[in-house]
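User: Fold this; tokens only.

Assistant: Input:
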Amino acid sequence: MQVLIANSIEAIGRDEWNRLFPAELEDWHYYQAVERAGLPGFDWLYFGVREDGVLRAVVPAFVTDYRLDTTLTGRLRNVTNAIARIFPGLLRQRMLSLGSPVGEVCHLGFAPGTDAAMQCRLLGAIMEKVEEYTMQHRIGMIAVKDASAAQDDVWTLVAQAHRLRRQPGLPTALLDVHFASLDDYLRALSPGTRKDMRRKLRPGARLRVEWRNNVDDIIDDVVRLYRSTFANAELNFEELTPGYFSGVLRELGDRASCVTYWLDERIVAFNLVLHDGRRLLDKFLGMDYTVAREYNMYFFTWMENVRYCIERGLPLYQSGQGLHREKLRLGSRLSANWLWYRHRNRLLDFIFASAERLFRLDRHDAELAALNPDTRR
């Protein structure tokens, strides 16, 4: 068994990577686009295991300076902001995390036919390499970002063996699309939601929608709208670059689109989406907030994506993370994701473990608490 670590996904063959992720939209090409996008503050890593020359397991990773209060909001965030102004380095820790800052889940892939026991063995070998790398490079924190509930058994066994603890991450929202039309979809919602949606969609009659596979001619507008939404977001981790949007569209070809929304000749919103024959994946939305509320842009873009799924027979609309209460109201179901972590310094790790209740995403969120009942203290 050979455990490998690479700084570029190009060190791993496209076909052998994709073989471990059948029908995955965020495939080798997606990670290549991310790698080339030049996202500030991130270094990319890829861990894998080969046996007899065959790739048996692989997972992307990144290294960054992580601000510990990233998930805090309200008064607690005001307190930590004040602390950070006085002691700028106190709340930042160098971190190696499996997963991706711009991936929907931590893409842990195994060769077809790998049984559960072998999956644990392979992931255990990767974790040993992670421990070795963090020690050599003096990285304090080890983490796993958005470990999917679908692989919870293997993550639980291996992560706990390496003394990682877990906290709830933001869940993935999924809408099962089995509707004959948009009216059929609206009829499936509660009467109050249906009435509210019909009211919200009326102003959108003035908007023009255009599906594009290239944004080079409007990239400045796309970035402007993205940064407007980024500035209004409650939780932020990564900041995207112009190269991310153009690169994803270029590398994924007909499996990626930028849906643009126009008011007369003015672009007022865009939505980067990935799609294949069975799923539409909503990646990033950017809006002009001077008109977003007037035209209820979030809901208008939601309905456009549902329409696309219905017309093309796609059975699943994956709207990603965030705004999960609204997505539940719009008929979605939630799938849990987990954050695993520990600090290599035992004293700091003890302090973090003692204070982690304050940093939990579900501490004031009944929906998340219900989704993750076994981790409540």
